[in-house]
Amino acid sequence: MSDLAAFEAERPRLARLAYRMLGSVAEAEDAVQDAWLRWRGAGAESIDDPAAWLVRATTRLCIDRMRAARTRREAYRGPWLPEPLIEDIAEDPLERAEEVSVAFLLALERLSPLERAVFLLHDVFDADYAVIAETLDRSEVACRQLAARARAHVREARPRFPVSQDEAARLALAFMDAARRGDLTALKDLLAEDAVLITDGGGKRKAALRPLVGRDDVVALISGLIWRCSIPMAGHIRLARINGDFGVVLEAEDGVVTIAFEPGADGRLAAIYMVRNPDKLGHVARA
After folding, report:
1. Are 219 and 182 in contact (CB under 8 A)?
2. Shortest CA distance to 187 belongs to which of 155, 136, 222, 154?
3. Count of H helices and E strands in the chain?
4. To 10 degrees, the CA torsion angle through 276, 277, 280, 285?
């Protein structure tokens, strides 16, 4: 097998790992490309286990990027959301939805780069601790401790409740319809009592500067947007699977917006995640 063929065989897995590490489609693509450059320069024909070597290289590259991005993240204006991962509704998701959900990725953000790497490699990608220890240049005992701390944080993420594809689509379309009509009563009925709305504008486009918690706060924000005629709901929409959940891609007057809807246990929406930052939507606009 040629160097290129060996790399391409592993590329999808490397991309999935890098996205979960970085929360960014663009940065994940860059990390995988950097792994390719290292692969070419390493004399790939002499590597006994290409898959393990590439996972190790990609993980280390992602950790370096996470550490370098820490200062930028601290200065980020308003709530941060991962770049939306868009899948065609007609296709089955490549992974279990909970492994790419926004809630899951936000929980991973609480972890240190090493905790995140250990947790993903072991609990999501099924690597054993001996391999992880070699990848991170840590002892197996240290890796087990990192994994235990990571799990304690991730457990705090909002639990997911399985709903049918039809029900998830109904909730998403009903929300968009009520918002466009300015029907605040219908909006409130669609939201769980403790529903959360997070909007990410990154200081580039208008967005709430804090998460809205509770359906009254969420509806109050939407009501204000309707009153100011600035609600980003008017425009062509298409259903999409966004980070494993049903959502919509909206072509608003000022650019593309993605809205992911997370169903709750009571048949209402538990969370809404809206990405408006154009820096995170280049790959969506090109789709």
Report:
1. no
2. 222
3. 11, 7
4. 60
pLDDT at residue 131 in the model: 94
Distance CA 271, CA 245 (A): 11
Q: Give the global pTM.
A: 0.86
Which two tokens mark 23?
Answer: 């929360």
Nearest C-alpha neighbor of 21 from the set 139, 155, 112: 112
Exposed (0-12), middle (13-18) or buried (19+): which is 210, by Cβ within 10 Å?
A: exposed
Would you say 176 and 248 are in contact if contact means Cβ atoms under 8 Å apart?
yes
Q: Kindly give the pairing relationship between strand 212-213 and strand 191-200.
A: antiparallel
CA distances from 106 to 137, 222, 273 (A): 26, 23, 11
Q: What are φ and ψ of residue 36, in 5° steps?
A: -60, -45
Closest CA relative to residue 217, chosen from 189, 199, 231, 197: 197
172-228 pLDDT, tens per residue?
889 988 888 888 899 999 999 999 999 999 999 888 889 999 999 999 888 876 655
**pLDDT tens-digit map of 231-269:** 555 567 888 889 988 898 988 777 888 999 999 878 899
pLDDT in tens, 21-68: 999 999 999 999 999 999 888 776 677 788 889 999 999 999 999 988
CB atoms within 10 A of CB 41: 8
- How far from 81 is each of 3, 52, 117, 154, CA to CA, in Å? 36, 30, 19, 16
